[in-house]
Amino acid sequence: MHGGALTGWLLVALCAVSGAYCLLRTRAGTPQERRTARSEALMGFGMAAMAVPAAALPPPDWAWAVYAVLFGAAALRALRPALRGGHHRHHLVGSLAMVYMAVAMAPAVTGSGGGGHAGHGAGGGAGGIPLLTGALLVYYTFYVLGSAGRLLPGTVVAAAGGTGVPGRGPQGFGGGMDGRPELTTACRLTMGIGMFVMLLTL
Fold it and tell me: Would you tell me how many other CB atoms lie within 10 Å of the CB of residue 5?
């Protein structure tokens, strides 16, 4: 990333921790909540892997194709639930954004032996469509601001109480295994910021 290897490792750590917390959330809750947690865990770990500085661990040439296929499958899986609304729409956008970044970085990988990964890890040049990148940046800007707003005092309590089910936020999502919706919101906020930073490198 533009901030250097230290910033890259910080992003790796934040995304990995978020993914691990989402993985823990898969152990409790309704089937819908567990599916949501699995999708968010995949996103967190995928972002952590893509953010590893290339100077420390150059990716193999086929890595970007794997990312594209993996998150393409995740996008297809999220498509039908996304039509019903709720947080699944965000999962769909996130999966498609990951596919987009993988495809945009792939030519740089094949052309420079890992330089594409440096776009996330060490400030290397990358491709991408400016208009699409800009649209995704705008989306994640509003998503991050919205998530941060839900962490303001009193907001989480009101959201959890509005469903009539302790520890569950709006639309039945995100209470978390410990009944603390603010942790789930903070996790999503972290991944939203991470996605915004990664898009800036395109």
Answer: 17
Query: Of 57, 11, 56, 202, nearest to 125 (Cα)?
Result: 202
pTM here?
0.76
Name residues whose C-beta falls within 8 Å of residue 37's C-beta, 6 or more positions apart in sequence: 22, 23, 25, 26, 29
Q: How far apart are CA 186 and CA 67, in angstroms?
A: 25
pLDDT in tens, 110-144: 444 444 444 444 334 456 789 999 999 999 999 99
pLDDT-above-90 percentage for the chain: 39
Model pLDDT for residues 63-113, shown as the tens digit of each residue: 989 999 999 999 998 888 888 776 778 989 999 999 999 998 875 544 444
Rounded to 10 deg, the angle between the 31-51 and 88-112 helix axes is 20
* Residue from 120, 10, 101, 138 nearest 59 by CA: 120
CB 196 within 8 A of CB 144: yes
Query: CA 152, 201, 45, 78 torsion: positive or negative?
Result: positive
Give the residue extent of every domain in the chain. Answer: 5-200
